[in-house]
Amino acid sequence: MFSKSTKFNVLLAAAALAPSLAFAHTGVGQTVGFLHGFSHPVSGLDHVLAMVLVGLIAWQIGGRALWLVPLTFVSVMAIGGALGMMGIALPFVEAGIALSVIVLGAVVALGIQAPVAIAAAVVGLFAIFHGHAHGSEMPAAAGGVAYAAGFMLATAALNLAGIGLGYLIGKVSERRGAVIARSAGGIAALAGVALLTGLV
């Protein structure tokens, strides 16, 4: 069973994201923008892996990290998205995204228990690249605010999926759960290497 604080944090995140959903359905253009934004993070393996890994890292650290690490990722990603929408160039975006999968996968694989501030700083650094990719690939006809709401909501959902996956893995048993989580992190890191080298 989830603790009361975990249930509260999940409900708080859902409540915070609900206004974005409501705003995205105010008209056809806004709805299309929202749908494009929402589909962007879930349509690429690199984005999915990184965002689920952020949730796994939050679960691995526990405590305040359960909400602070994903919140940092989504917030900083929004800044990167704004830069991309404004056409402000950012070097090494694709390499940064692939490196995020490698580094975050390695953190999970090695079971690193970083302080919350360091974990938030690391995911925030990589969030800039993910956000820039989302923003720079926004369709010309999409509404910027609705599009941003879509990719932020999808990202938060993937982060929550990672936290949920962590809890499910932990239910297996303390010993086996750690092995499964670390194996998943290792596989993700290898996938990141394949992305970086162009094999995927």
Characterise this structure.
With 200 residues, the protein is mostly helical. The protein is built from eight helices and no strands. It is globular.
**Average predicted local confidence, pLDDT:** 83
How is the biggest beta sheet arranged? none
| Percent strand | under 5%
* Total count of helical runs of at least 4 residues: 8
User: Pairing-aware structural class of the strands and helices?
Assistant: mainly alpha
Helix content: over 70%
Q: What sequence of helices (H) and strands (E) makes up the elements?
A: HHHHHHHH
Rg is: 16 Å
Q: What's the multimeric state? A: single chain
Summarize the entry for a quick read.
The chain has 200 residues and is mainly α. It has helices at residues 4-24, 28-42, 45-61, 65-85, 93-109, 116-136, 144-172, 174-197.
Notable traits:
200 residues, mainly alpha, 82% helix, globular
Topology diagram in text:
Elements lengths: L3 H21 L3 H15 L2 H17 L3 H21 L7 H17 L6 H21 L7 H29 L1 H24 L3
